[in-house]
Amino acid sequence: MIIQCPNCSKKFKVDSSLIPSKGRNIQCGSCNFVWFFDGKDKAFLEDTPEKKIKEEKLIEEKLYENNKKDKPKVYNQKALVKYQNKSIFSFGKFLSYILVFIITLTALIIFLDTLKYPLSNFFPNLELMLYNLYEVLRDIKSFIIDLT
């Protein structure tokens, strides 16, 4: 059964076997209000699906009405300050993406180099591929040095 606190209207689901036929004192877990409850009280709500559906609809309607009231009224569509969207692409963002890519690639190479012997069971040519990768990186380094 569902019991509603007469003080704060908080609803609680209670096992009906815990309440004797003569009634008992109940304390609200939300506001600590204590009241005597017998089965004939207004605080007793039947736990039927139809009643739940009606309560949910009432709650949804109240929420809709509250949201309607809270929205500010716009009388004029003209803004005092016009905001312009900044360009999404910038050189700083591009450099940060390049830096993250280089760090990720370096971490992946270190990871593969550290575990190359256990991973060689799954990838038989891993050691050769890592050697070729090191050679390519060395060639890129020498190319950059020659440019300066």
What does this structure look like?
The chain has 148 residues and is mostly helical. It has 2 domains: 2-64, no CATH class; 91-147. 49% of the residues lie in helices and 11% in strands. It has 4 helices and 5 strands; from the N terminus they run E-E-E-E-E-H-H-H-H.
Task: Give a quick summary of the entry.
Helices cover 49% and strands 11% of the residues. The protein has 148 residues and is mainly alpha-helical. Strand 1 (2-4) and strand 2 form a beta hairpin.
Low-confidence stretches: none
Mean pLDDT: 77
Strand order of the largest sheet: 2-1-5
Give the helix level as a range of percent. Answer: 40-55%
Terminal-residue CA separation:
83 Å
Assign the structural class, choosing from mainly alpha, mainly beta, alpha/beta, alpha+beta, or little secondary structure: mainly alpha
Number of domains: 2
Task: Note the run of SSEs as H and E.
Answer: EEEEEHHHH
What would you report as the Rg, rounded to the nearest angstrom? 35 Å
Overall spatial form:
elongated
Query: What is the number of helices?
Result: 4
Main β-sheet, in a few words?
3 strands, antiparallel
Q: Count every beta strand, where a strand is a DSSP E run of 2 or more residues.
A: 5
- Proportion of β residues? 5-15%
Topology:
Elements: E1 2-4, E2 11-13, E3 24-27, E4 34-37, E5 44-45, H1 49-70, H2 91-114, H3 116-119, H4 126-147
Antiparallel strand pairs: 1-2, 1-5, 3-4
